[in-house]
Each structure stands twice: as structure tokens, then as C-alpha cells.
Design goal:
By secondary structure, the protein is mainly alpha-helical. It contains 6 helices and 3 strands; from the N terminus they run E-H-H-E-E-H-H-H-H. Helices cover 62% and strands 5% of the residues. It has a 3-stranded antiparallel β-sheet with strand order 1-3-2.
Length: 145
Amino acid sequence: MENTLPSIPAKRYFTIGEVGDLCGVKPHVLRYWEQEFTQLRPMKRRGNRRYYQHHEVLMIRKIRDLLYEQGFTISGARNKMQEILELEREKRRSSDLADDDSGADVAADAAQSDNTSPRDIQMPAEQVAQLRAELQEIRTLLLLN
């Protein structure tokens, strides 16, 4: 399935038309899937224009695979997607606990135990820089409309 679809460009946001082309699905099908799959929540801007992120494009490709290639029903695909997302969350949690060198969990636990405000917890500089860049990009998008 993935071989017949075009590669996903390195962009932050995609319009519904672009996602339709990238996933081989018509825009009205994408709008329908948003109703059926609660995990699929594109950002909506003025006039209810949808903007999908990279992870949502991957999710749509997975939904398409489940429905069109593997023959799942909508209900079956919804359940399978829920299972997949729960497994990914568990993997992320276990890897975060095993690979956490920053001590963020320890700091959060300490903050809870001694009634320290979450603002008192220090974030690594790279996370702060990434968050700042994302916020500036969101601000730019808001100012454009």
C-alpha cells in the first residue's frame, strides 16, 4: 500500500486536498472519517478549513490500509486504530521511563510532593527552543488570517 502512495513532503501542515492526494482518498471521505475516527482531529481555521499534520497523514494512510487493503469495517478499523494508539502510548511510556536522562519525571514528582508549582520545573533548553518555534509558527498562521 505505502509503495503506491507518494512520499509525504517535509511540511508542518497539509490542506485536505493535499492529504487526499497523498493518501489516495477523496476529501469528502476524509471529512467522513473525521466523524468516525475520534483520533483524527485536524486543526480548523477560518471558514472551517482543515489543516492536517504529518502524524495525521500517517494515521489516514493506516485507516485507508485497514479499510481498503485489509477489509476491515469502519467499526473494526476504529477498534484496531484504538489498539494501535494504545500500544504506541505504552511503548512511549516505557521508553520514556527507560531513556529519561533529563530527570523530568523526578522533577515532576518532586514538584507534586513538595507543592512546587509546575512553572518551577526546568525544561531542557532544546525543548524550550522547539516549543518557542512552534508557538511562533502558530502565531504567524493566526496573523495571516
